[in-house]
Amino acid sequence: MVSINNLQFSYSKKATIIDQLDLELDAGKIVGVLGKNGAGKSTFFKLMSGLIQPKGGEMNILEEIPFQRQPSYLSKMFLVPEEFELPPVSIKEFVNNTAPFYPRFDKSMMVELLEKFELTDTLNIKGLSYGQTKKVIIAFALATKAELILMDEPTNGLDIPSKAIFRKIMAGNFEDDQLILISTHQVKDIDTIIDHLIVLDNGGVIYNESIFDLTQKYDFLKVQQLKVTETLYAEPILGGYKTISPKQDQEDTQVDLELFFNALMNDYKKFI
């Protein structure tokens, strides 16, 4: 579904954002895309959606070249950008005008998702808060049933109850032929819904594994005292430490994505 080789992009000669990035992804995954500020997550999504042209390398997504922006590609892909502006019309009118571009669009799903977000399609988008508007575009993205959905910081602007609803919606409205990529700094907002993890740093992919593989390789534990020889990474908490160590127990421990991301940023070579 996604095949990217030696991808390169820079906004200037002195600011290379993406450098020799390689990535292969199949359908049937909800992927978390993590990285520090400036790591190129938003730029990567713009490249995948064809909004900007690579400086080098090859991108083949859904058997198309994104920057050609062919209608056949755009109808199978949807981008939820971090910053956006929707027209000042009712939600129903926006759906009626935009949904025809997406052959698999499900209007009944749209209505259902709006209800879960405590919205109705009679509301005018102009009168909505930023958080409410974000709910509209998330609901629309999922209702397209697009084969590729890119979400850049989707939980920004959502309050705590809405984030919980977002997680339930994501888990319950996903099909096997879809690939969803979610870029975020709010790791705890997605740690229960993703089944694959990608981490960007230094212009490329430094980690690309399933969450299942993480549970098979490492134990995520809270301990009172550190065992230095058995600990790959640790952070102090009240009463002890959160740690990552090589897998020892037969029972799987719950992956702490925030802890693991910090560990990668500290020394990712330990985990390759």
UniProtKB/TrEMBL annotation:
Keyword presence, Transit peptide: no
Domain ABC transporter, chain residue ranges per copy: 2-227
UniProt cross-references to Pfam families, sorted A to Z: ABC_tran (PF00005)
Superkingdom of origin: Bacteria
Molecular-function GO terms, alphabetical: ATP binding; ATP hydrolysis activity
Keywords assigned: ATP-binding, Nucleotide-binding, Transport
PROSITE patterns listed in its UniProt record: ABC_TRANSPORTER_2 (PS50893)
InterPro entries associated with the record: AAA+_ATPase, ABC_transporter-like_ATP-bd, ABC_Transporter_VariousFunc, P-loop_NTPase
Name assigned to this protein: ABC transporter ATP-binding protein
Species per Swiss-Prot/TrEMBL record: Flammeovirga aprica JL-4
